Amino acid sequence: MLIQPDDLLLIIDVQNDFCPAGALAVAEGDAVIPVVNRLSERFDHVVLTQDWHPPGHKSFATSHPGSAPFASVAMPYGPQTLWPDHCVQGTKGAEFHRDLVARDSELVLRKGFRKEIDSYSAFYENDRATKTGLNGYLRDRGLKRLFMCGLATDFCVAWSALDGRREGFPIIVLEDACRAIDLNGSLVAARGEMLKAGITLSNSSQIG
Q1: Domain map (residue ranges) of the chain
Q2: Known catalytic residue: 13?
């Protein structure tokens, strides 16, 4: 699979809180960094997403007294998994991992900054209606095919991939440059949804 000039690498949420010792650590989350760094050097266009929650965000378990992390609650936009407080604006946990080379990419897209609604996808917030603006950015720049990597495979990567596919972009998810939370079988479910949507699940070694 040859990289083209109008391809883009989307690096999703490689932040301290999703890496070991972080508030919402993904197992081996930091293991993606060397792979992501090698990839970022090969693409002409790189965009980062950054989880960027205000204190007291409604997706935090601490905002729902009596609820535990990883429980589910009903929100106006549908079921919401409750998370430990993480990626709070201006904190060390919200920063990109120091070893991530592509910290100064073309665009940093912040998501999850609206207190009342969570945002997994790089394209839409979890109400499936509020746009982040990424689609317009990609169209205006003439970028056509998206390669995705980062954290976590079964949440922010998968939701971004599925929404990107719905917007008409060819999507390739590089699984060796991702790691999953795998909450109650969420990884198998996410992989199944991506394959059903026509998303290519590949590996960085297949990139020429």
Answers
A1: 7-53+84-206
A2: yes
Whether 178 sits among the annotated catalytic residues: the reply is no
**What sections of 15-133 are H helices per DSSP?**
32-40
Half-sphere exposure of 137 (CA within 13 A, CB side): 17
Of residues 124, 114, 168, 116, the one with CA closest to residue 146: 168
Q: For the segment 10-55, what is each residue's pLDDT rounded down to a tens digit?
A: 999 999 999 999 999 999 999 999 999 999 999 999 999 999 999 9
User: Which superfamily does CATH assign the domain made up of 7-53+84-206 to?
Assistant: Isochorismatase-like (3.40.50.850)
Catalytic residue among 19, 87, 156, 178: 156
Q: Is the CB of residue 97 less than 8 Å from the CB of residue 36?
A: no
* 28 residue type, one letter: E
Radius of gyration for the alpha carbons in the chain, expressed in angstroms and rounded: 16
**pTM for the structure as a whole:** 0.96
156 is catalytic: yes
Instruction: Report pLDDT digits (tens) over 166-197.
Output: 999 999 999 999 999 999 999 999 999 999 99
